[in-house]
Here is the input.
Amino acid sequence: MTSVLDSGSSRSQHFQGVVPPFLLERLQGAGARATLLADREMRAGREVVQARTAIAPRTGGTLERTISDAKSTRDLPGQQVRAEGEEATGDAATDEAYDGLGATYAFFDEVYGYSSLDGSGLPLDATVHYGQDYDNAFWDGSRMVFGDGDGEVFARFTVSLGVIAHELAHGFTQYTTPLEYKDQAGALNESISDVFGALVEQYTAGQNAEDASWLIGEGLFLPAVQGKALRSLLEPGTAYDDDVLGKDPQPASMDDFVVTTEDEGGVHINSGIPNRAFAVAATTLGGPAWDRVGQVWFDTMTVGGLSPTVDFAGFAAATLAAANERYGAGSDVAEAVATGWSTVGVRTTGNESIPKPSDDRV
Here is the structure.
């Protein structure tokens, strides 16, 4: 472990925006300052929202979407502007959010036979045009919320299907294995969202692992920014290198693990390590990443038994166990998963068994 970032006070662990606070803090514009303030206030209320919404059992379900418009305020949910089955409105953010929610639902349903984010048809709600020049998107425990960006650094956040799916995947984590949003467990929380965000994009585009960009947030940066995306799963640390934003700080292996008290212990930074493990496993195996390696990650999250504070090694062992269970020990899938983790310097023993379900599962 090498790098040490600023050692300020730890932030609340209940807010999960796609743009990390350390990146926003580098920006001097009014939009970034307003976003940081809004995010801090949202963090303070996040736990209440989660406690209220991680609830009642559902039975079955079909796709049900609603899109609301905050009209540049921070009042949620805003005015409903499109419901399931209604025609496009002509407002780009509204229609992109509607389509992105649908693409994410279709992915989980068609690939894994899993209905919505909770497996039981949870309705998918979103709010667009949140705040003024708001530079983020987030899952608040019950709905997606999208800013329009500041028009200088960031475009509107609905422009990226990967961002939409990334944030919805925080809901998937909430309802399956609610990983603590701090340190290595928090980095895994962010990585799960990056993985499924990338998989939704690849599935929708019909891309194989070897043909995909493996970028999260491609298209968010406006032309003035020297960068291609927020993060790269396959090549962490290469997504941007800009005079104002600085260089992408994500490490590609445990050799460069970042020790910090900022960003909840580096949840958006060290997530590059498990991200790369997945991308290497998928590209080693080849073909559709969602088909086999993605199935292993899905199984790992839904089988139960993972601790909310699991570290990289524990999660790696669980993925290898899931690969062994579904595809057999010594299978090409299990070997690819092991290769992914060894590439980033996370050890597995090679003979893991599926963990027993525990009461921690939602």
About this structure: The first strand starts at residue 65 and ends at 69. The mean pLDDT is 88. The chain has ten helices and nine strands.
